[in-house]
Amino acid sequence: MIATAFFGYILPWGQMSFWGAMVITSLLGAIPLVGGDILFLLWGSYSIDNVTLHRFYSLHYLLPFIILLITVIHFALLHEFGSNNPLGISVELDNAPFIPYYGIKDAFSIIIFLFIFFIFIFYAPDALGHSDNYIPANGLVTPAHIVPEWYFLPLYAVLRSVPNKLLGLFLIACFIVCIILIPFICKNTIIRSTMFRPIYGCVVWFFFFICYLLGWIGSLPVISPFLEIGQFVTFCYFFILLILFPYIAYFEKSIYNAYIRRRERYKNKIWII
Questions:
Q1: Of 102, 131, 146, which one is at a domain's C-terminal end?
Q2: Strand partners of residue 14
Q3: 115 in the same domain as 36
Q4: Closest CA to 42 of 146, 261, 53
Q5: What is the C-alpha separation between 122 and 142, in angstroms, rounded?
Q6: Which of 96, 124, 146 is the C-terminal boundary of a domain?
Q7: pLDDT tens profile 114-137
Q8: Over pLDDT 90: what percentage of the chain?
Q9: 80 and 190: one domain?
Q10: Residues 133 and 161 in one domain
């Protein structure tokens, strides 16, 4: 989805689209040994030009079919293992059918999303964009402040928090991979719902606030103190995902195990009496 959105953002071929493509794709050139070849294959030339635009258009058209395939796989797994519930407790004896219960719930969420989406489309189409993107792309004129679309701002804030291209590319990869690894590194087999995990719930809301700060920092110029704030917020993002979430899961599980051991000892004492 990120790649599809990025290639679609390039298609208007405005100043922000052109220079956004230049900044992001040039990161691939920092890969040792094969970076230059990958960059030349993606551009189709020694710089971004009409051939690059045609390649991005083809990728923007083809990638949604991959998303559709992944969605079908997701539905198949959902049918196999079932959905979660607000209590986070797996109950095999009292299952609710997907239609109409989950179908109505999901339809309501889709209607709310489309309502907000149509407000922006029909009444404020330029509210979230940048005015410089109405200027035709010109490789000889660099915008004063290159800024991506709003949905790329957290990634952009992580990228510019380090001065090295290769390290920035590594952080972007970690930014995405860490989210994928959450179900594995934060595994809690006791209960999954935050309704009974207040510490975890507070940290989750703090994590959302950190993501909002990343988006805010990404829209600001790369000057002090915004640069230092971005570096600190980037550190907080990875610290929460890689350290805090797994530790909270381990802490809650240890408390539960201690409670079980104490209860067993208490039962044994009663039996002896």
A1: 146
A2: 136
A3: yes
A4: 53
A5: 31
A6: 146
A7: 999 999 999 988 888 888 888 998
A8: 36
A9: no
A10: no
For residue 32, what is the domain's CATH number?
1.20.810.10
Query: In terms of C-beta density within 10 A (0-12 exposed, 13-18 middle, 19 or more buried), how is residue 119 classed?
Result: exposed
The DSSP annotation for 20-89 comes to HHHHHHGGGGGSTTTHHHHHHHHHSSSSSSHHHHHHHHHHHHHHHHHHHHHHHHHHHHHHHH----TT--
DSSP 204-271: HHHHHHHHHHHHHHHTS-S-TTHHHHHHHHHHHHHHIIIIIHHHHHHHHHHHHHHHHHHHHHHHHHHH
3-state secondary structure at position 173: helix
- Active-site positions read 79, 83, 105-106, 149
Q: What is the pTM of this model?
A: 0.84
Residue tagged 């989750």 (tokens): 204
**What total of structural domains would you count in the chain?**
2
For residue range 37-88, list pLDDT tens digits in order: 888 888 988 888 889 999 999 999 999 999 999 999 988 888 877 777 777 6
For 218, the domain range is: 148-273
- Same domain assignment for residues 139 and 155: no
- Domain containing residue 236: CATH number: 1.10.287.980
Please give the angle made by the CA atoms of 58, 64 and 70, to the nearest 5 degrees: 140
